[in-house]
Amino acid sequence: MAAPLNLNDLHFFVQAVEHGGFSAAGRRLGVPKSTVSKRVAELENRLGVRLIQRTSRSFSLTDLGRDFFRHAQASVIEAEMAEAIVRTHLGEPSGIVRMTAAVPTAQFIIADHLAELSRRFPKLMLSLHVSDRFVDIVQEGFDIAVRSHQASLPDSSLLQRKLATHPFFLVASPDYVEAHDVPQRPEEIGGYPAITAGLNDTTWRMVSTEGEEVSVTPKPVTAADEPMVMMKAALAGLGLTCLPTSVCRGALEDGRLVRLLPEWTVGSITTTILMPHRRGQLPAVRAVVDFLSEKIGVEAC
After folding, report:
1. Rounded to two decimals, what is the model's pTM?
2. What is the CATH number of the domain that holds 286?
3. Which domain, by its residues, includes 140?
């Protein structure tokens, strides 16, 4: 009878695929590139097939390698789950949870909670990757992606868990409010300098608490596609702007910004957690997801 496959070899193979090469996998695992390459070669020799086509310039899975990877990845995750279940039984969630988020989401939604997460789960280490590029969380080996979006997310094989919906408020600085007769109705906004998310951001659709809808055309004096820049421009008195509560809550609470037309909102943005199906079952991942749901859900109220 043939000896069973070495789970460690499966782990090296999965890491190499998830990180796009032996060098990146070696850095992630803290071992030389040659170790990863050797273990994958031993796995291929044991199976008698080529799983990865590699040259000095390319690294890609064979057709059989793609099929094998899906099952190998599932086996590695099941092993992680088995270990995590034991650790959880003995105490508390532990291990590394890899999460990715865009810059504004990390700055305004996640960052303030990292210290409490660490205190609550001292044996758990969160590795947060912050980037505005599109991240393929399955191929790049992440456990969680936190995404803020205005349109619905496309259907996918990923698990989705909505965290919160943050409305956009119309805001301005106290100095701006003191210097101008601020609008009393949405239709008046067109006469005021505005900070918009882009020069083509020419229409704001406003909705009242009574359900009335009005489309208004702001007059941009500054445009920026990053909310921190927009808020700083508003704080400097350049004009009125629309910001989600996740961004402007602190400035409103300490009086650095004033909400205008408080019976009206200008759309909303939703924050959602996405997880590969199997990784979402890991106790440490569930602990992070439940923690963020608790904290961010309360913030949106």
Report:
1. 0.67
2. 3.40.190.10
3. 92-159+271-299
